[in-house]
Amino acid sequence: MSIYEEIVATDKRSPTRSILYEGTCSVCGKKVTGRKCDLEGVKTCRHPNLKNTSVPYSQITDESLRIVFEGIVKRCHKTYCKEYRWYGDKGVKVCDEWLSNPYKFQEWVESRMLHADSESKMSIDRIDPSKGYSPENCRVVPISENARWKSTTIPITVNYQTLTGRQWSERIGKSPDYINKMRRNIGIEKTAEYISKFLNEESQGG
Questions:
Q1: Does one domain contain both 67 and 119?
Q2: How many CB atoms lie within 10 A of CB 4?
Q3: What residue numbers bound the domain in which 165 lies?
Q4: Which of 4, 19, 28, 31 qualifies as a FRET site for 137, CA 20 to 30 Å off?
């Protein structure tokens, strides 16, 4: 049984457009907002521990963004997090600017959401998967786009544009796995040269 009582739907939405729910902790009385499945899965009160955290999450006034930021910090800096091995353990961290002042993260997201499609489900994406979360290495993209970039994805940069192998295949009108197969056979540099040559010929009408 969850420690949260009176879990009810709110008019708030997460960055993925999911309905957020509010529940009251039966142990300490704290009201918490989150996804229903997350609230229903909590069995013990963890709120007293939040007083000892070095990250002042409360600076983020948007509840849904606070949940997103807490998740990012946990998988990058908390060894107990089950996702830590894919992030923090590989050197992926959150920049000092956002850690010391989380509201800067909210400002950064909101400034980019002004230009986003309000009907699309959005996500925080790292441009270079090997680097951490920072204004320089992150972007706000539709979830459908972010799903293409996994920790095992190898980006290919041609003419200052970075895409996945599948995206380059689509760009030059080939089968979905065409470029990835080429990369595996002849290497990333020669593959990039092939794409560059194709784009040059295309721009010249050839």
A1: yes
A2: 24
A3: 154-206
A4: 19
